[in-house]
Write a structure and sequence with these properties.
The structure is a homodimer. In chain A, 36% of the residues lie in helices and 20% in strands. By secondary structure, chain A is an alpha+beta fold. Chain A has four domains: 3-94, Uridine Diphospho-n-acetylenolpyruvylglucosamine Reductase, domain 2 (2-Layer Sandwich), CATH 3.30.43; 101-219, Uridine Diphospho-n-acetylenolpyruvylglucosamine Reductase, domain 3, CATH 3.30.465.10; 223-337, Alpha-Beta Plaits (2-Layer Sandwich); 345-423, Alpha-Beta Plaits (2-Layer Sandwich), CATH 3.30.70.2740. The longest helix of chain A is centred in the C-terminal third of the chain and has 15 residues, at 359-373. The first copy, chain A, is globular, with a radius of gyration of 23 Å.
Chain lengths: 482, 482
């Protein structure tokens, strides 16, 4: 711990008490690496305030001392966004003790949750009042509201309800100098200059610390139906989605899954079985919900809408889960795709988006281009077709050495895929953010105007560059390889 | 015209041709004042490029020369946001020649419109393809897409479809140094750092010039119904809205109108008549639409939903327009409120928002507080109750001298009303923006942290402070009266 860090730690201990400071190596260690074990950092201490005032105190002190801070919620970043630098130059600022749900108003369809509230806990709390917070993802048992907001998280219900950006109605945050942005009021209209809330959403903790968020709720679902559908190709899948959306607003999940990914799940995940007989090249998992007994039952709705699609040949085969257990089994296949893939060997994974209409062609052509350019790999994409966002994964040739692959072909493939994404007008980070993992690729692939704007904003709001250093935007242009 | 301006004008003439430069005083004059005649400025020339490249050329030159520019679309600002400074220090940058609709995709529900496209023209063009751009307002015959985006415009359909912020899928803009932000791609998910599109929306041209926008469309409406409803007070009106919204997603207009405002319309606007017999203290105009023949007809829907509200006494009386002509007549009353008020004498007008649930009480209590504090005035609020946004108007005592009123009591009342809004956690500009009209009040009422952040962002992206000077944020803190 350097002198400035020591001074900060002692000052925080005096101001906020012993509970707000963690210096025991054993307690710190689990938070120094990301959950996938790809990034390893070092932090001499964790600061853990339990109020917004405490956060403000810490930031004012850190700003004065010039001590970098890495904010952390559930530490579930996919891009190393919450892992401290390896040189020990930063302390971790944990928001986990700020875990109160300050208010739930069922009548207003609003909840106010502190940054450290775990998503699953919020789901449960609003559920007790007949409401639902309509964003969910695999890490819901660990991911926190502050992190979800700071990364503009997505998930499997974005199709109907949008990402965090659309679900956040207000933000309380502490800016890098310790001043407080009091923006929790849920104003549907507010044109008082630049929208600081929107700027903080997706800023990955580089512009300040979100301490609490006002969230929009929807009525709890009263019924759902889950269908498993086989289609010839992604184009037919998208046409099916458009048919469904033209007829109903009840569709909230629409996940495309290639046949070989399904096969990996059947091969590697115990207890799974194929929902449909026969072999199909593409599959779609569809979920429809109702929140009112007066609405058409989702199962009847899907049956009614899928029948003509089958008759016309747009859908090759389809089954609607006959029970909640079967619905869960269908979703388990979807949720096991990454795990099954990991079990089968190393892969280069990409969370990318292109305009929705272009995605079917991109999925086919980009996979073919990868397989042609890197002989022996298998490329395939699965996920949120209706959002124009898929997880585009390229699996190493059978028998590839993982260490060699991740050091050599893996990054080369990532650059190749990202080039294709940029050529298609897409984004190299659809929902996972930049963190440290995508920093170099963002620099390599962004227009100079865009990078200059990101740096200017960062420098304007965090002039000492102490908030989550080394994430999202680099202090100076990263030198490009010759 | 000063030397730098002359040099810029000549350089633009050479680069973009004579059509891109207007120096005739008669041609400039109409654009030097706002449409309500409250703000009068002076611009030695208008620059009028017709391509994004032309805008980039102009900004690069202006940046190099340090010449301030005031962007202008339809010049329909409610807050003097498009009026140049009086000292002639700025040129007008008109986007009106950039009026192409570059693309409409009915299948994707997207359109790409240049900044100078007039809203009504966009409505017509997408209508021909069975689509609707679901934002409209009184100035639709003049207001342009660039201005609507730069001011995050609202209007009467925000309840269902949101403000421009929710309807913009992509932005092409030129940053102050002439570099181009190419963000038109309609990516539903894109987490590549700070969201520059969201930052430009509502920035009032102070951070760069929006040159084209990708807009979300919805299916064209196939049917609508308009109801006029009498209620006892705003609380009952909000309860009615919640009842309707719990049962249907078809409600897209819900405008509250006080009885005395209706009376002003009946007194001053020829050809209007009260939709309901008898006298009522509060009225609500409700519009429901359908975009599919399979949906319940909106008139039947409203009848079905209003019947129990009448039976329970939540609604005192109601009528559903029996014809499109009658529906238009109901809307004409709503759209004539401001005109009728102007005909009755001077008034201090405020476009404000508070959290939706607090609005009924605010409307009553703030009006009473105004009338108690300023004897003889009449305060009332009308508008978008479901958005938590009303136009809160305070009319001068009968016989007040307009010039004296606007110089003395008017501003005092505005400060009084704005104080009440801030105390209620609301916004002093819900949908009109800050422009030059609200600049002092924004400074007076914002937290120092917020003002510092606005200034820092402005200075970071426009270091010479040449984009729309004197609007939205002041270069230095405005001295406060002792």
């Amino acid at each position: 711990m350097n002198t400035a860090q020591s001074a900060l730690v002692e000052a925080v201990r005096v101001a906020l008490g012993d509970k707000a400071v963690v210096t025991d190596r054993h307690d710190i260690a689990p938070w120094e690496s990301d959950w996938r074990g790809r990034y390893h950092g070092h932090a001499p201490a964790i600061l853990a305030p339990d109020t917004a005032e405490g956060v403000a105190t810490i930031l004012a002190l850190a700003y004065a001392q010039g001590v970098p801070l890495v904010p952390q919620g559930g530490n579930t970043s996919m891009v190393g966004g919450a892992t401290p630098p390896a040189d020990g130059s930063a302390l971790i600022l944990s928001l986990r003790r700020m875990n109160r749900i300050r208010a739930i108003s069922a009548a207003d369809n609003l909840a106010v949750a502190e940054a450290g509230v775990i998503l699953a806990d919020l789901h449960a709390a609003v559920g007790e009042q007949g409401r639902r917070f309509p964003l969910t993802l695999g890490a819901r048992g660990s991911a926190t509201i502050g992190g979800l907001t700071s990364t503009n998280a997505g998930g499997t219900q974005v199709l109907r309800f949008g990402t965090m950006r659309g679900l956040v109605a207000g933000i309380e945050a502490v800016l890098p100098d310790g001043s407080v942005h009091a923006g929790l009021a849920a104003l549907k209209k507010d044109n008082r200059g630049y929208d600081l809330n929107q700027l903080l959403i997706g800023a990955e903790g580089t512009l300040g610390i979100i301490t609490a968020v006002t969230l929009r709720l929807v009525p709890a679902a009263t019924d759902r139906a889950v269908a498993w559908v086989a289609v010839a190709d992604p184009a037919d899948a998208l046409a099916l989605l458009r048919r469904l959306e033209a007829a109903t607003q009840a569709i909230e999940g629409f996940e495309i899954i290639p046949g070989d990914s399904l096969q990996l799940v059947l091969d590697h995940i115990p207890g799974t079985r194929a929902p449909l007989a026969g072999t199909h090249r593409w599959h779609v998992l569809i979920e429809a919900t109702a929140s009112d007994a007066q609405e058409e039952a989702p199962a009847a709705l899907l049956e009614r809408l899928l029948a003509p699609a089958i008759a016309e040949g747009q859908v090759a085969d389809a089954v609607i889960a006959a029970s909640e257990a079967q619905a869960e089994a269908f979703w388990r296949i979807r949720d096991s795709l990454s795990e099954a893939e990991r079990a089968s060997g190393p892969a280069a994974q990409h969370d990318i988006s292109v305009p929705v209409a272009d995605m079917p062609r991109f999925m086919i052509e980009a996979a073919a281009a990868c397989e042609a350019r890197f002989p022996g790999v298998r490329a395939s994409a699965f996920g949120h077709l209706g959002d124009g966002n898929v997880h585009f994964h390229v699996r190493a040739p059978a028998g590839a050495d993982p260490a060699l692959w991740y050091a050599g072909d893996g990054p080369a493939i990532t650059r190749f895929v990202n080039d294709l994404v940029v050529a298609a007008g897409g984004s190299i980070s659809a929902e996972h953010g930049i963190g440290q993992m995508k920093l170099h690729e963002l620099e390599r692939l962004s227009a100079p105007a865009r990078l200059a704007a990101l740096r200017a904003i960062k420098g304007a709001l965090d002039p000492r560059w102490i908030m989550n250093p080394g994430k999202l935007v680099a202090l100076a242009p990263i030198p490009r390889a010759p």
